[in-house]
Amino acid sequence: MLKPRPTATREIVNLDGIWRFAVEGPETAAPWSGPLPGALEAAVPASYNDLFTDPSIRDHVGWAWYQRDVWVPRGWAGERVFVRFDAATHAGRVYVGDRLVAEHTGGYTPFEADITDLVAPGAPFRLTVGVDNRLTNVTLPPGTITVTRDGRRSQTYLHDFYNYAGLARSVWLYSAPALRVEDVTVVTTIDGTTGVVDYTVTASGDAEVAVRVLDATGGEVARGEGAAGSLRIENAVLWRPGAAYLYDLVAEIRDGDTVTDSYPQPFGIRTVEVRGAEFLINGEPFYFTGFGKHEDTPVRGKGHDDAYLVHDFQLLDWVGANSFRTSHYPYAEEVLEFADRHGIVVIDETAAVGLNLAVAGGLTGQAPTPTFSPETFNDETQTAHARHLRELIARDKNHPSVVMWCVANEPSSTEEGAREYFEPLIALTRELDPTRPVTIASVIFATCENDRIADLLDVICLNRYYGWYLDTGDLPAAEARLEADLRGWAAKFGKPIIMSEYGADTLPGLHSVWDSPWTEEFQRSFLDMYHRVFDRVPEVVGEQVWNFADFQTSNGIHRVDGNRKGVFTRDRRPKAAARALRERWRRIGHHKPTGGEPR
């Protein structure tokens, strides 16, 4: 699905701002009809949970409703009119007047509706959007709903971040011609100093298609005719980590000499390859340094905020990071566009977090419920997972910053049924995009001996917390266990290994002369220990600390105002570990460090 862009043939109206708001009740039950009752208003984009002081809204489980009046520009006569939502967490229903025009399930990918026949240029219409935050065994992420004794719904879930809900990303009204560009796919390769650009343009009907490639100055460097083709750009400037360069492929629908629709698709010329135990970008070994992140800020929750976007990337640059993972869901498109422009490398992940009932069993001491079964995560879950993959790749396939797809985070890959569940999904990912490697972030309980799916992956991504959840506070014991773990994976699979999570909860300002858990000194010593091990294991090609910044979680006695593993606080103040990472990462750049004596 193409992101709305203003062009000579298209116009957009941003619908962000203050909307009328209500949570589900006797007067606001679906299907929707009429104006919203009450006087509540909510900001868009933002999660609604932290906007209000009423705990019944923060803890609400079910539908919530947004509504506003929208004017269609009078100059849009004769054009098709669309309303687009960049996301609605976790499901959405859209009404124009009282007419249902769109439904979507999945909280982090866009959807839209053609509303041309229901609106009139120069006239207003009532736009109502329902968002449903309920999670079940067939949603991603999954969860369970129970009813309390007093009749309230209660939501539990298996992921360790707060279940923020609402319209957390922008809403758009846009116009486009009836015969228009509907999709663009760009795939690049390198032939010496020449960039090879394979393109496919999908139109809404039979159309004459032409394309032009513009460089960063707007100069034309290639052109082609037809809905698909291959173009060559001599002396191409490559997109490189830390040195981004973008071209535009301008797709045009023509009627003779007249351009009836035009859409510019930014892209970068670069290649990605796994060769043996190396991860290569443009044929050169690349070493990942960075973080798992979250879309999480005070008051806004998961609401996208351009100011935080700019500041977070400034902190990535300051600390010397070259990458991050979109843990644990696709981020806003603005984030990937910013990464494209600034040369930051991205591992792009679906919302498949929590497909692991064994973790709950381990925490409670009870025998775990089987993760994969007709009653738990089943064929319907797998179908939903496949839909998430299709929507993720369709949205993000043209971003040069995206170098790998992550199918899931910490699934129960050791259980019976794991291979049957994941093998078709991994195959689907490669079918949808054969140009990028595929991975899964592996839970600490999955070892090189008991994991059932690692052989299907291109890169081994490991989430490990030796010294925190295991061998708590005992860094020498944790160091030995970590190195043995990594060398086992390396010996068995011979694939690149990325430590996709490692970290320790840390309270800013808490200090000790000893390495005591929760202190700033312990977080720094913890990370130093991991880095010594990484430098001794040649197959390790990346380190992404958990987490970039502290973030909010559900209620739980094992969390103190959320997860505190951030190197920065939730309001982006550095802890001591941030300066230690800065010293290391700015020294090593994009290259694999070596050092330390083997144990």
TrEMBL record:
Residues 14-177 form the Glycosyl hydrolases family 2 sugar binding domain. Its EC number is 3.2.1.31. It comes from the Bacteria. Residues 180-270 form the Glycoside hydrolase family 2 immunoglobulin-like beta-sandwich domain. GO terms for molecular function: beta-glucuronidase activity. It is an enzyme of class 3 (hydrolase). Transmembrane segments: none annotated. Keywords: Glycosidase, Hydrolase. It holds the Pfam family Glyco_hydro_2. Residues 272-588 form the Glycoside hydrolase family 2 catalytic domain. Belongs to the glycosyl hydrolase 2 family. PANTHER family: BETA-GLUCURONIDASE (PTHR10066). This is Beta-glucuronidase. It comes from Marinactinospora rubrisoli.
